[in-house]
Amino acid sequence: MDKKSFVEKFTGRLPRDIKSATPQQLHDALGKTVMEMFAEHWSNARQEHLSKRRGAYLSMEFLVGRAVYNNLLVLGIYDEVDAAFKELGLDLADLEEIEDAALGNGGLGRLAACFLDSAATLGLPLDGYGIRYKYGLFKQSIVDGFQREDIDDWTKYGDPWSVRCDEDTVLIEYSGQTVKAVPYDMPVFGFRTENVGTLRLWQAEPVKEFDFDVFNKQDYLEASKEKIFAEDISRVLYPNDDTDEGKKLRLKQQYFFSCASLTDIIRKHKARYGTLDNLADYISVQLNDTHPVISIPELIRQLVDNEGYTFEKALEMAKRIFNYTNHTVMQEALEKWRTDLVEELLPRIYAIIIQINEALMADMYSANVPREKTDRIKIIKGDLIHMADMACYASSHINGVAEIHTQILKDTVLSDWFSLYPQRFRNETNGITQRRWIALCNRELSAYITELLGDDNWINDLDRLKELAKYADDENVLRRFIDIKQAKKQQLADFIKAHDGIDIDAESVFDIQIKRLHEYKRQLLNAFSILWIYYGIKDGSIKDFKSTTFIFGAKSAPGYRRAKAIIKFINEVGRVVSEDPDTRDLIKVVFVQNYNVSYAEKLVAAADISEQISTAGTEASGTGNMKLMLNGAVTLGTYDGANIEIVQEAGEENNYIFGARVEELEKIVPEYDSRSVFAGDDMIRRVVSSLIDGIVSDGGSGDFRELYMALLDGASWHAPDHYYLLGDIRDYVETKLRCIGDYSADRIAFARRQWLNMCNAGKFSSDRTIADYAENIWGIR
Ligand SMILES: *Cc1c(COP(=O)(O)O)cnc(C)c1O
Question: Does the annotation count 718 as an active-site position?
Fold first, then answer.
């Protein structure tokens, strides 16, 4: 980087009195300057991608977080820009005020962002396609212990990291409405490579200034009750994680970005090759969950209606082009669309889905597949279109996201498909990018790793961390590691004080559970365990308890009543333990506000204990578990998702595993009776009864009683204690106490375990995941 010209361009974009510039102005000037400096580089890389077989990653969510620091790091200009800021009397840390681009809910969207980073770094031609939501995931605050939601107007002060490309605009046709899809491109810079990926996010706009033919205000208001206006389509991200809403606007969103992305792919291909006959030789499309699966009939529609291919040929091409990643085994998350809705909004797509279903049935008849089975796998069942079944039929590869998850898919959710097409199934255990999740968020630990390894090439080769295992018994190394962890804990404590107004003791153990709030993730189990420890300290059965700060970060879907009740309950438990003089110095509970990628960066670096306590068989993989491991936290968790592989890599003796396993639950669940567990165990009865015994308050909503009833009597379609909290809690508390006890008994021995977790995190680099997808699924290089 030419520092002089950087400073000139940068300051040229600032107000004359540089010191008066707001963080937003600094960010805008910095972003635009960097984008300009690397524009040519990006444009070359784009052309390079188009000249090869390439991958397109279609995802309804890209949880990219804050771009500025990461871009400076991966472009190798962080220190220079930092120095330039200082010389100008500015502080790069002021850009902490810049909002995250929270264009995703959680793990699925963050995975997409990590994948693009890895592909760019590995020099692979992979580009992302998604939606440019005007409002990302809501901003959360905690008011009186309850979640409050505010809109997330993330582009309010501009978005210097995106470039609008009007020339690539696509028209999207719904029945009775045509809208424009205008792409905004974000560069995804690889770390120490020439390669740059592109994340193309589509924004919906009206074709004309007014796309409705009503003129007076009353008519307008009447019409707006009915009509979804063009801009509405990309207005807001649905805040549901792992549940299917089945709403019309959501279907419009799915079709919107699927159609726009495929049109873009087809246009570029035709411009270069003059034919689509070889399309499948040059493009591989990954469907991130079922949200983009409407791309399958859409590709066929374009090939048949616009390009003159037969349906059979188009279907054959689709089968070569698409691949499907499944992210969940939970029934309530499997997407289904009502036939009448699809027919009303997208009649031609509906007709093609019927044809795909007929083709599937014809294949089944030829193979003499029994009727019970064809009834189960057909795409249209009754009046519902099953998106996962369409994806399985028209894809080359189907993958789960951790070993156990892929096994469960084969055994249960997709077992019919597995028996028909076993060769299509693969496992691709998820990963995280080490650029953001250690090099950026833990510069102190990264510098130390670099010092020990002699160079920083490990940032592109995470397996090299294994070489550090030889220091596991070197007390000097462990002491340095502890000092760094301590520094990160202090930084987090300072941040929590500033951001959430809560004092915490950085000398205490940091036990952290950060992830979306969901019953299956069992934050309620964690809260119960804290109460259990509280009662144990009070009655003297728990002695010498080492002071521990239990930190939670989680957003609940705004309409998910029970999850919101759990947030309030956690805060109420926190109030109880801190009001009591017997425990206030020993237990602290913090529920941080607005957990997002930037907050996660601070939390993972500071954790001692990583809580990964989902009911076995429910968490497909998890990626938060990997971020925490990489930063040297031990896992306190169940045998679920990637926890199993984490323990395989880092050693069971260095982690804290508890609870019923999948095979055990299969036997237990049919007979499980939460009421007899409740009645037969004094402590379980005591902590669960806290929901109704008046020790905590739900503000009179009755929500705590509802939680209580869900555990003992069942609720909606779920059996009592569907997620087995009461069954696992004793083992959980004992394991947790052992873990905290180990920390306080011998900090060095505990640090050794933490260290070995970090050393063995190499497998969980998304570089490994992406290299595997590239070789075995996409065939790109
Ligand atoms: C990594 C990440 C997640 C996923 O966490 P899990 O523990 O795997 O569910 C969710 N939200 C954010 C902000 C993340 O960074």
Answer: no
Name the pLDDT band for 214 (thresholds 50, 70, 90).
Answer: very low
Q: Which of 325, 433, 623, 638 is catalytic?
A: 623
Active site residue 515: yes
Q: Give, for ligand 1, the residue of 240, 516, 517, 766 to mutate: max count of ligand atoms closer than 8 Å to Cβ.
A: 516
Q: Is the CB of 134 under 6 A from ligand 1?
A: no
Q: Indicate whether residue 431 lines ligand 1 (CB < 6 A).
A: no
pLDDT classification of 215: cutoffs 50, 70, 90: low
Cβ–Cβ under 8 Å, residues 120 and 39: no
Among residues 41, 52, 32, 237, the alpha carbon closest in space to that of 130 is found at: 237
Of the candidates 139, 515, 564, 588, the residue annotated as catalytic is 515
Q: CB of 592 within 8 A of CB of 504?
A: no
β-strands 548-553, 384-386 pairing: unpaired
Q: How many domains does the chain have?
A: 1
pLDDT-derived band at 221 (thresholds 50, 70, 90) equals low
Taking CA atoms only, the protein residue closest to ligand 1 atom 5 is 624
Q: What is the pLDDT of residue 224?
A: 61
Q: In the annotation, is 627 catalytic?
A: yes
Helix (H, G, I), strand (E, B), or coil: what is residue 435?
helix
Proportion of the chain above pLDDT 90, given as a percent: 95
In a domain, 578, yes or no: yes
Residue 191 lies in a domain: no
Residue 327 annotated in active site: yes
Answer yes or no: is 598 within a domain. yes
Pairing state of beta strands 54-58 and 336-338? unpaired
Q: Is residue 267 in some structural domain? A: no
The whole-model pTM stands at 0.97
